[in-house]
Design a protein that fits this description.
Layout lengths: L1 H4 L1 H41 L2 H9 L37 E4 L2 E4 L4 H8 L5 E6 L5 H8 L2 E6 L3 H8 L12 E3 L3 H8 L4 E7 L8 H8 L3 E12 L4 H15 L16 H9 L3 E9 L2 H29 L6 H6 L4 H18 L5 E8 L7
Parallel strand pairs: 3-4, 3-6, 4-5, 6-7
Antiparallel strand pairs: 1-2, 7-9, 8-9
Length: 369
């Protein structure tokens, strides 16, 4: 009705609907072409048993990969406050991530966790940008005393209250002030480990964070970081969106948009320039899944098609699940099969993978003169 009474809005919606239809038709055609091209390779990998081989390789750890038992059964009944980056029921990113309809698993961090536990001392960890506290919970399971640090005390408390802390016999200390204030509270050389998963790219000045973190770590203390690859389609879109938002003078929600868009080499250079040495650097989420299928197909649906379908569904009193609609083009069985070829081609396409998995170590103190 509003579209009829407000002609300008009606024309705007009509144009958006026409564009959405064109985009949807294009996506369907591209999906068919991509599937035809991929089909022989998928049949080849299936006949050679490669899906099982790579699934076995990914899931080789003894770690419980699920969040089951970590959160209370009644969390959905708690007072609703808008929550972002909610990973309470997901795997800890210390061991993998379920994203792009693929169950990614890695061992780059667990190897260093074993090294730290072998020291047989009381271990302290900082979860910087702790978000939903999923990784804080896992670190406590691994035997660490944890400080969980993030921006909003109310949201942190809501997440905190949803966990079964009695099952891990410890609780994290929640901290919402600056890294500098944390140093004043705990002193230097305190942490054996700091993790920053999907955080550094959100910072205005990542250099200041790294320089403030370094003295809090013990000599040879580890930094585990996950940061995106600025070369991917998603990051290029985020960069474009940020620029348009800035040009229009629109406010940004603190901690939400990506502000740093660096290549793998640039991320490594940033970390080493601020008092760390890179111990290991791997990549996850391959370009066939991330760029070709989700970037070329899923992203246009999310940006152009889903908003129009949501408005139409609302107008007719229907429900529309944008995530479910998008996943019809990127189903889990297909993405798992495509991921096999991402893994096979990784030696040649590694720098196009979506995420950097970085293990860095604080450089030792300078030798006394």
């Amino acid at each position: 009705m509003k579209l009829v009474t407000r002609p300008a809005r009606g024309v705007s919606f009509l144009l958006a609907a026409v564009l959405a239809a064109i985009v949807l038709i294009t996506v369907v055609v591209l999906w068919i072409l991509l599937f035809i091209l991929a089909a022989p390779f998928l049949l080849l990998s299936a006949s050679l048993g490669w899906p099982e081989k790579y699934r076995s390789k990914a899931n080789g750890s003894e770690v419980d990969f699920h969040g089951a038992g970590s959160v209370r059964d009644d969390i959905e009944a708690q007072p609703n406050q808008p929550l972002i980056f909610d990973r309470r029921r997901d795997i800890s990113k210390l061991f993998g991530c379920n994203t792009r309809n693929v169950q990614y698993r890695w061992s780059i961090f667990s190897q260093r966790l074993e090294e730290l536990r072998a020291r047989k001392t009381e271990l302290h960890a900082l979860d910087f940008g702790a978000g939903s506290l999923r990784d804080s919970y896992e670190l406590i399971k691994q035997g660490f005393t944890v400080v969980s640090m993030d921006l909003d005390p109310a949201i942190m408390q809501q997440y905190f209250d949803s966990y079964e802390w009695a099952k891990v016999n410890s609780r994290p200390r929640l901290f919402t002030e600056s890294v500098g204030r944390l140093g004043e509270s705990l002193g230097a050389d305190y942490f054996d480990l700091a993790i920053s998963f999907d955080v550094i790219e959100h910072l205005e000045q990542p250099e200041a964070y790294l320089q403030g973190l370094r003295p809090l770590l013990k000599d040879h203390g580890y930094l585990f970081a996950i940061v995106p690859n600025g070369r991917t389609i998603y990051e290029r879109y985020f960069k474009y969106s940020l620029r348009k938002q800035t040009e229009k003078g629109l406010p940004r929600q603190p901690g939400v948009p990506h502000l740093q868009f660096k290549s793998p080499g640039e991320w490594a250079a940033l970390i080493t320039a601020n008092g760390f040495e890179i111990v290991a650097h791997d990549m996850a989420i391959g370009p066939l899944v991330n760029d070709v299928w989700h970037g070329m197909l899923g992203l246009p649906i999310r940006v152009f098609v889903a908003p129009v379908l949501e408005r139409l569904a609302y107008a007719f009193g229907r429900q529309f699940n944008a995530v479910s609609f998008e996943e019809r083009f990127t189903s889990s069985w297909l993405m798992a099969a495509i991921n096999v070829w991402d893994e096979i081609l990784k030696p040649r396409t590694k720098r196009r993978f979506g995420w950097n998995l970085i293990v860095a170590r604080r450089n030792p103190k300078p030798a006394a003169a």
